[in-house]
Structure formats: structure tokens, C-alpha cells
């Protein structure tokens, strides 16, 4: 007998307040749609404002209670704080923080430059510790 998950995702995620970075394409876009289908309240962010608005519209069509988009490049040191402040102003608090951003696409393949690794850590990890 295969055990079945006891979690009722609709009950768990309905009305949850989610901040999702990197939401304009790929995995981030699909995660935004997933949360939307369960009736979450979303703040989505990404660099591409046009794509971000398209994702916002589709999330509303899929059933999100609320969706706010905030175009931002998370590789700029002041933007993470601005994005979080925006999310808190719009949603009141957060239930889920999904960090799915990478910043500018300069880190294609490691070329031996330790500064690139430091930049990647700054954008992907360290900002959440501030």
C-alpha cells in the first residue's frame, strides 16, 4: 500500500500570502500559476516588466485572490529590501517567501573567477540575511 499525503493543498494554500521572485518565466512563472490555482495572494517580481504583467494577468485568471507585480532586478543591493517592503505593504505579512531569482545573466558557466561566485552568492543567498 502506497501512503497518501495527508496535506490538503487547497486548504493549506488558499489565501496564503506569497512573495515570489524570478516570476516572469520558467520555474518561477509556473510556481506563480501553481499558487494562483490554490487561491493565494501573490507579490511577484522579476526584471522583465512586460512579462511580469502577463504573468500577473494569468494568475488572476487562474484564481489568485490578489496579485501585485513589482519589477526589480534583485542583483541591485537596495532592491531586495524594497521588494519585501512592497510585499508587506500590500499583503500585511508573508506566509511563503520563494527566492527564485538570479540577477543578470552573467554567470553562464564558471570561468574560474571567484568574484563571479561572490556575486552569485550575494544575489541568491546573502540578501535574505539582511
Automatic annotation (TrEMBL):
Query: Does the record carry Oxidoreductase as a key word?
Result: no
Pfam families linked: adh_short (PF00106)
GO-annotated molecular function: oxidoreductase activity
Q: Which domain of life is it from?
A: Eukaryota
Alphabetized PANTHER family for the sequence: HYDROXYSTEROID (11-BETA) DEHYDROGENASE 1-LIKE B-RELATED (PTHR44279), HYDROXYSTEROID 11-BETA-DEHYDROGENASE 1-LIKE PROTEIN (PTHR44279:SF3)
- Family the UniProt entry places it in: Belongs to the short-chain dehydrogenases/reductases (SDR) family.
Name used for this protein in its record: Uncharacterized protein
Question: Which organism does this sequence originate in?
Answer: Chiloscyllium punctatum
Amino acid at each position: 500500500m502506497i501512503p497518501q499525503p495527508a496535506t490538503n493543498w487547497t486548504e493549506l494554500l488558499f489565501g496564503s500570502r506569497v512573495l515570489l521572485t524570478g516570476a516572469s518565466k520558467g520555474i518561477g512563472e509556473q510556481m506563480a500559476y501553481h499558487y494562483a490555482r490554490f487561491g493565494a495572494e501573490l507579490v511577484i517580481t522579476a526584471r522583465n516588466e512586460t512579462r511580469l504583467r502577463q504573468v500577473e494577468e494569468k494568475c488572476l485568471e487562474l484564481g489568485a485572490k490578489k496579485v501585485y507585480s513589482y519589477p526589480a532586478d534583485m542583483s541591485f543591493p537596495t532592491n531586495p529590501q524594497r521588494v519585501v517592503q512592497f510585499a508587506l505593504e500590500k499583503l500585511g505579512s508573508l506566509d511563503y517567501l520563494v527566492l527564485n531569482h538570479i540577477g543578470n545573466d552573467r554567470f553562464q558557466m564558471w570561468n574560474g573567477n571567484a568574484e563571479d561566485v561572490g556575486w552569485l552568492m550575494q544575489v541568491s543567498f546573502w540578501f535574505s540575511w539582511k
